[in-house]
């Protein structure tokens, strides 16, 4: 295996697992420790192996009123914000791209922050996608209270942090996201699926175009997510796989490999897209849990064994502290920055 491939988090995690299983406890501990400094799916799993805090090192954007005013004086950026405000996001993105073409990193960060304050959350997700900017978690993982996700998730009986993780992975906060399979909006629902969910839950259904309304999309998306969870013993990771690939395929995989431990099952999912999707959603769920509560339910608790009933965390659920052991580029790297919205299967 090439040295570059040996730097992959999945390879490092399972190498550490293999070392531990063959009696090389100290080597395994060192391998887990190297990986646990990363705020990723396998980094969080490694931290759980060591029972240590999760390594999340947030960066705060410094105030720069003068640069903000300079940006806001640019006609192109003003047009972008105005187009977004009147619900023309595609045209707004075009103006945004043209106005910021060739801009330096500091300018891009300030522009993303200005967009975030106006409720245009996807700009930060797509703009702050590399280097130290990955540590701007408040911008890259927004908590959009006006869209009612927390309340809708709680009414549906699922954990808000997980619902946020699904939304973030599905659309990267693009409310007008539209996949090639005709999935629409923040939680990427097919109109046919949305209509069935609305009927089942006694919710209003205004047709396919209503899925571009964030409040409608979230109300239906959280109910559909709860439906998937109910089908798979409440398991968020299996329900995430079903949300992406369809519940029938997950049933087939369980029939073939249902005795595997969760991390091994995820690693053997036949579809690369779904393997990466489940890992991304579960990592995002940890980050959103921290954003909501200041700490996080351990990933191994979320990754409950197949067949074991799982419910949303309660007051007695153990939680993992967050610390910042370093701010090196390796520690700053995150899960996916801007997932594609064109491959949803529901």
Molecular structure report:
The protein is 56% helix and 1% strand. The protein has helices at 9-21, 25-35, 41-50, 65-72, 75-85, 89-99, 105-117, 122-127, 137-140, 149-156, 160-171, 191-201, 214-231, 236-245, 247-257, 262-267, 272-293, 299-302, 329-332, and strands at 54-55, 322-323. Residues 328-346 have low confidence and may be disordered.
Strand content: under 5%
Give the distance, in angstroms, between the N- and C-terminal Cα atoms.
36 Å
What Rg, in angstroms, do the CA atoms define? 20 Å
- Please trace the helix and strand order, writing H or E for each element: HHHEHHHHHHHHHHHHHHHEH
The helix tally amounts to 19
Shape: globular
Low-confidence stretches: 328-346
Whole-number mean pLDDT: 93
Task: State the share of residues found in helices, binned by percent.
Answer: 55-70%
Largest sheet: 2 strands, parallel
User: Taking strands numbered 1, 2, ... along the chain, how are they ordered across the largest sheet?
Assistant: 1-2
Alpha-beta classification: mainly alpha
Strand runs, count: 2
Summary keywords:
346 residues, mainly alpha, 2 strands, 56% helix, disordered C terminus
Q: In a nutshell, what does this entry contain?
A:
This protein is mainly α and about 350 residues long. It has helices spanning about 10-20, 25-35, 40-50, 65-70, 75-85, 90-100, 105-115, 120-125, 135-140, 150-155, 160-170, 190-200, 215-230, 235-245, 245-255, 260-265, 270-295, 300, 330, and strands spanning about 55, 320-325. It has 19 helices and two strands.
């Amino acid at each position: 295996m090439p040295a570059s491939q040996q730097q992959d988090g999945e390879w490092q995690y399972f190498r550490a697992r293999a070392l531990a299983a063959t009696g090389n406890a100290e080597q395994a501990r060192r391998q887990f420790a190297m990986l646990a400094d990363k705020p990723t799916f396998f980094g969080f799993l490694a931290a759980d192996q060591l029972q240590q805090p999760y390594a999340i090192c947030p960066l705060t954007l410094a105030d720069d009123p003068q640069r903000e005013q300079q940006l806001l004086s640019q006609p192109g950026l003003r047009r972008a914000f105005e187009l977004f405000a009147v619900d023309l996001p595609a045209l707004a993105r075009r103006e945004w791209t043209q106005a910021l073409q060739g801009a330096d990193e500091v300018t891009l960060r300030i522009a993303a922050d200005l967009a975030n304050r106006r409720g245009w959350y996807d700009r930060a997700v797509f703009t702050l996608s590399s280097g130290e900017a990955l540590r701007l978690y408040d911008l890259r993982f927004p908590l959009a209270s006006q869209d009612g996700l927390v309340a809708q998730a709680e009414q549906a009986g699922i954990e808000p942090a997980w619902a946020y993780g699904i939304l973030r992975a599905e659309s990267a906060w693009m409310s007008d996201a539209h996949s090639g399979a005709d999935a629409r909006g923040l939680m990427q629902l097919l109109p046919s699926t949305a209509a069935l969910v609305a009927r089942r839950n006694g919710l209003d259904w205004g047709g396919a175009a209503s899925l571009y309304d964030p409040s409608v999309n979230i109300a239906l998306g959280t109910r559909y997510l709860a439906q998937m969870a109910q089908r798979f013993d409440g398991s968020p990771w299996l329900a995430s796989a079903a949300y992406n690939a369809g519940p029938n395929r997950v049933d087939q995989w369980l029939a073939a490999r249902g005795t595997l431990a969760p991390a091994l099952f995820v690693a053997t999912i036949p579809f690369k897209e779904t393997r990466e999707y489940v890992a991304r959603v579960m990592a995002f769920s940890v980050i959103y849990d921290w954003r909501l509560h200041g700490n996080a339910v351990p990933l191994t608790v979320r990754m409950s064994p197949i067949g074991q009933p799982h419910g949303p965390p309660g007051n007695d659920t153990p939680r993992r502290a967050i610390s910042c052991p370093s701010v090196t580029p390796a520690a700053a790297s995150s899960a996916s920055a801007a997932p594609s919205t064109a491959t949803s299967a529901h």
